[in-house]
C-alpha cells in the first residue's frame, strides 16, 4: 500500500500542467533526436541541458528522462525507413525492420515498435517501483568506503565495455579523474589548476565538456566527409496497426524483451544497446523458424525495440538509488541533478520523494505520450529525415553555442566547449572513447571525497577496504572484470558490448 | 593507426607527468591525511603509467608490423571543411560581446550556409529568420541574457513588450 501511496504522490506531481508540458517537450525532442542520425541521446541531453536551468529540478529531470526514452522510440523510425540507426541502440532494428519496410510492411514495423516500446516502458516503470525502494534502503548502509568501491566498479565496467584496448579507456578515465580535480579543494580551500580563471574555481563545467565532446566533435567528424543523401523507403503506410498474426508473433518477444532489457539496463555499464542485441539473439535462438530472421521477421523488431526502451527505464535504478550512474547518459543525468542541487542516492527517496516518485510517474505518462505521438507523426518524422545535414549542422552548432552560454553567461565556457570539441574530434580519430572520460569527470569529485574520507577513516591503510564485505566484494568484482580482458574468448565478444551513446 | 598511437600516448604521457609533478607541489599530504594534491597526483601517475604501457606496446608493434596506412583525413577537402566550421565557431566566441547576439548569429549562419545554398538571398533570409527566432526563444522566453553588442536590443524589446 505504501508503494501505491507513493506512486499516487508521484502522479500528482507528474500531472501538474507544467510538468505534463515539460514531459511532452522532452519526449518530442527525444523522438526528434532519435529520428535524426548524427546526434544520439547523449548529445541531445548535453545540448538541451542548459534549457532545463529555468525549470524546477523535477521538471528538468522529467524533460531529460523524456529525451532519453523518447530517443529510443525515434531511433527505430530511421532504422526501419532508411536502414540507418537514429541512435546506437536501434542498430539491430535495421536488420529486420528495414526488410519489413522493403516487403511493404513499414507501417506494421513502425506500429509494433511503438506498441512494444509502450508495453516495455509500462513494465519497466512497474519493475522500477518494486526494486528501487528496497535497493535504496540497502544503500543506506553504505559509507565512504562502499561508495568509493561502487564508483570504482562503475568506472571499471565502463572502461571494460569501451571499444578498443582497455589501456586507452583507462587513460581516458585517469584523464577524466584529473579534470575533476580542477577547481577549489573543498577541504583546504586551495585552488587547483585554475590558472587564475574565475570560471574554473568551481571546477570545469560538465556542460561545455560534454557539448564539445559529443556535439561539436560529432559535427566535425560528419562534415569532413562528403555527405550523401539518405534514401527513404518509398512506401505507403497502409495502416500502422499490425495484423492479428503479427501481434501473435510479437507479444512474447515484447514481454521477454521488456524483462531482459530492464535487468540488463540495471547493470553498471549495461544499457539499451546491450539489451537490444541480447533480445535479438534470444528471439532468434528460441524461434521455431530462425531462418526468417534477417528477412523481415517481426519478432526481430518487437523484442529489441521493447528491450531498449525497458533498459532506458532500468538504467535509472543505480542512479536514483545508489547515486552512481551506470552509463554515459546516466552520468549526464547525474551532472544535471548536481547542477540543480540534488544529490541522487538512497536519501533521495526520503528527502525529495516528490522528485523520485514524480520522475517515475512521469515516465509512465511519457510512454503513453510517445505512443500517441509517434503513430500520427510518422509523416512529420519522414519530412524531418529529408532535411539535409548541410542545413542541420549549423543549427546544431548554434544550439551548442547558445546552450553553453546560457549556463553561466561565460565566453570562457564557450571556448572550453570549442576546445573539447577539437579534442573529442582528435580523440575519435586516434580511437579513444569519451564515455570513460565523461563518467570519470562527473564522478571525480565524489570519488576523491570518498577516497580521502576512507583513507582518513582507515588511517592510510588500503587493506581495510577488504575488511568491509560490501567494499571488498565490489573491489574484487572490479578486479575480476579487468582480469577477464586477458581471456581471449571474452576479448572477442567484448566488441558486441559498447558504452551507451 | 600505430603512429597515431605513439603520438597520442606521448601527449598523454607528458600531460600525466606534468600533472603528477604539479599536484605533488600543491601538496600530496600523507596517506592517512590526503592533501589537496592527492587525487591530482594519483590520477596523473595513473595516466602516465597507462600511457607508458601503451607507448611500449605501440612501439613494439610498430617495429613488428610496419607503419599504418590509415589516412587521418578521409578526403583531400577534409582539412578545409574542418577549418570552415572552426573559424565561425571561434568567430562567434570572439565577436559575441562586441557585436551582440543577433548580428553574430546572423553572420554565423550565413557563413556556414552560403556554400550550400545556390541563392544568396535565401541564405540571408533563412539566417535572419533563425537569428530572430532563437533570440525570441532564448532571450525573451527563456530569459538568457545575451550581449547586446551594436544593436540597441533592450530598447527595442522594451518598446515591443
List keywords for this structure.
heterodimer; A: mainly alpha; two-stranded antiparallel ribbon; 1% strand; globular; disordered C terminus; B: 161 residues; mainly alpha; 2 strands; 2% strand
Task: Write structural notes for this entry.
The complex is a heterodimer of chains A (501) and B (161). Chain A has 501 residues and is mostly helical. Helix content of chain A is 71%, strand content 1%. Chain A has a two-stranded antiparallel sheet. In chain A, strand 1 (183-184) and strand 2 (191-192) form a beta hairpin. In chain A, helix 5 (91-102) runs antiparallel to helix 12. The longest helix of chain A is centred in the first third of the chain and has 34 residues, at 106-139. Mean pLDDT of chain A is 82; it is low at 496-501. Chain B is 74% helix and 2% strand. Chain B is flat, with a radius of gyration of 25 Å. Chain B has 161 residues and is mostly helical. Chain B has helices spanning 2-27, 38-65, 78-99, 101-113, 120-141, 153-160, and strands at residues 29-30, 33-34. Chain B is built from 6 helices and 2 strands; from the N terminus they run H-E-E-H-H-H-H-H. The chains are: A mainly alpha (501), B mainly alpha (161). At the A-B interface, helix 8, helix 9, helix 18, helix 19 and helix 20 of A face helix 1, strand 2, helix 2, helix 3 and helix 4 of B.
Question: What secondary-structure arrangement, pairings included, does this model have?
Answer:
The complex is a heterodimer of chains A (501) and B (161).
Chain A (H helix, E strand, L loop, with lengths): L1 H13 L2 H19 L5 H8 L8 H26 L8 H12 L3 H34 L4 H18 L4 H16 L1 E2 L6 E2 L13 H18 L20 H23 L5 H15 L12 H16 L1 H7 L5 H12 L8 H4 L1 H22 L3 H8 L3 H20 L2 H19 L5 H23 L11 H16 L3 H6 L8
Antiparallel strand pairs in A: 1-2
Helix pairs in contact in A: 1-16, 2-4, 2-16, 3-4, 3-9, 3-14, 4-5, 4-6, 4-12, 4-14, 4-16, 5-6, 5-12, 6-10, 6-12, 6-13, 6-16, 7-8, 7-20, 7-21, 8-20, 9-18, 9-19, 10-11, 10-12, 11-12, 14-20, 18-19
Chain B lengths: L1 H26 L1 E2 L2 E2 L3 H28 L12 H22 L1 H13 L6 H22 L11 H8 L1
Antiparallel strand pairs in B: 1-2
Helix pairs in contact in B: 1-2, 3-4, 4-5
Amino acid at each position: 500500500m505504501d508503494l501505491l501511496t507513493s506512486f499516487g504522490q508521484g502522479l500528482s506531481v507528474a500531472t501538474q500542467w507544467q510538468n505534463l508540458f515539460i514531459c511532452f517537450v522532452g519526449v518530442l525532442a527525444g523522438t526528434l533526436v532519435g529520428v535524426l542520425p548524427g546526434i544520439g541521446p547523449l548529445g541531445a541531453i548535453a545540448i538541451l541541458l542548459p534549457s532545463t536551468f529555468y525549470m524546477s529540478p523535477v521538471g528538468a529531470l522529467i524533460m531529460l528522462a523524456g529525451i532519453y526514452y523518447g530517443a529510443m522510440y525515434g531511433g527505430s523510425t530511421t532504422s526501419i525507413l532508411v536502414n540507418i540507426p537514429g541512435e546506437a541502440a536501434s542498430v539491430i532494428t535495421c536488420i529486420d525492420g528495414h526488410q519489413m519496410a522493403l516487403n511493404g510492411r513499414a507501417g506494421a514495423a513502425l506500429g509494433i515498435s511503438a506498441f512494444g516500446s509502450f508495453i516495455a516502458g509500462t513494465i519497466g516503470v512497474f519493475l522500477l517501483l518494486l526494486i528501487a525502494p528496497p535497493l535504496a534502503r540497502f544503500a543506506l548502509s553504505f559509507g565512504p568506503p562502499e561508495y568509493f568501491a561502487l564508483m570504482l566498479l562503475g568506472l571499471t565496467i565502463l572502461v571494460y565495455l569501451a571499444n578498443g584496448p582497455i589501456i586507452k579507456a583507462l587513460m581516458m578515465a585517469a584523464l577524466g579523474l584529473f579534470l575533476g580535480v580542477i577547481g577549489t579543494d573543498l577541504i583546504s580551500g586551495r585552488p587547483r589548476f585554475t590558472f587564475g580563471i574565475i570560471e574554473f574555481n568551481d571546477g570545469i563545467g560538465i556542460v561545455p565538456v560534454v557539448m564539445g565532446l559529443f556535439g561539436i566533435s560529432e559535427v566535425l567528424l560528419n562534415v569532413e566527409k562528403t555527405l550523401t543523401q539518405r534514401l527513404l523507403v518509398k512506401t505507403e503506410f497502409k495502416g500502422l496497426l499490425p495484423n492479428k498474426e503479427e501481434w501473435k508473433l510479437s507479444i512474447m518477444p515484447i514481454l521477454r524483451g521488456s524483462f531482459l532489457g530492464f535487468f540488463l539496463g540495471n547493470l553498471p555499464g549495461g544499457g539499451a544497446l546491450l539489451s537490444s542485441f541480447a533480445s535479438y539473439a534470444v528471439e532468434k535462438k528460441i524461434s521455431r523458424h530462425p531462418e526468417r530472421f534477417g528477412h523481415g521477421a517481426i519478432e526481430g523488431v518487437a523484442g529489441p525495440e521493447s528491450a531498449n526502451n525497458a533498459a532506458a527505464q532500468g538504467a535509472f535504478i543505480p542512479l536514483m538509488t545508489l547515486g552512481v550512474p551506470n552509463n554515459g547518459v546516466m552520468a549526464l543525468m547525474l551532472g544535471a541533478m548536481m547542477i540543480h542541487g540534488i544529490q541522487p542516492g538512497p536519501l533521495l527517496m526520503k528527502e525529495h520523494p516528490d522528485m523520485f516518485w514524480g520522475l517515475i510517474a512521469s515516465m509512465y505518462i511519457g510512454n503513453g505520450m510517445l505512443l500517441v505521438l509517434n503513430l500520427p507523426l510518422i509523416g512529420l518524422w519522414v519530412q524531418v529525415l529529408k532535411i539535409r545535414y548541410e542545413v542541420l549542422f549549423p543549427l546544431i552548432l548554434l544550439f551548442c553555442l547558445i546552450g553553453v552560454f546560457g549556463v553561466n553567461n561565460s565566453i570562457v565556457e564557450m571556448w572550453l566547449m570549442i576546445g573539447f570539441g577539437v579534442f573529442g574530434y582528435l580523440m575519435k580519430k586516434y580511437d579513444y572513447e569519451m564515455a570513460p572520460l565523461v563518467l570519470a569527470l562527473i564522478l571525480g569529485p565524489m570519488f576523491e571525497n570518498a577516497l580521502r574520507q576512507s583513507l582518513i577513516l582507515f588511517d592510510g591503510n588500503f587493506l581495510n577496504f577488504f575488511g568491509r564485505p560490501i567494499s571488498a566484494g565490489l573491489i574484487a568484482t572490479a578486479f575480476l572484470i579487468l582480469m577477464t580482458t586477458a581471456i581471449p574468448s571474452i576479448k572477442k565478444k567484448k566488441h558486441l558490448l559498447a558504452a551507451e551513446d | 593507426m600505430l603512429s597515431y598511437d605513439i603520438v597520442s600516448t606521448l601527449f598523454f604521457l607528458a600531460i600525466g607527468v606534468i600533472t603528477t609533478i604539479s599536484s605533488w607541489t600543491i601538496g600530496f599530504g600523507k596517506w592517512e591525511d590526503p592533501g589537496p594534491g592527492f587525487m591530482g597526483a594519483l590520477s596523473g601517475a595513473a595516466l602516465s603509467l597507462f600511457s607508458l604501457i601503451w607507448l611500449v606496446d605501440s612501439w613494439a608493434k610498430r617495429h613488428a608490423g610496419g607503419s599504418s596506412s590509415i589516412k587521418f583525413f578521409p578526403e583531400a577537402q577534409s582539412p578545409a571543411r574542418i577549418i570552415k566550421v572552426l573559424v565561425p565557431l571561434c568567430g562567434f566566441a570572439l565577436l559575441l560581446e562586441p557585436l551582440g547576439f543577433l548580428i553574430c548569429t546572423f553572420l554565423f549562419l550565413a557563413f556556414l550556409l552560403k556554400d550550400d545554398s545556390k541563392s544568396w538571398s535565401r541564405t540571408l533570409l533563412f539566417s535572419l529568420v533563425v537569428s530572430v527566432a532563437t533570440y525570441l526563444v532564448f532571450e525573451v522566453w527563456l530569459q538568457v541574457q545575451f550581449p547586446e553588442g551594436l544593436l540597441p536590443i533592450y530598447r527595442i524589446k522594451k518598446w515591443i513588450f
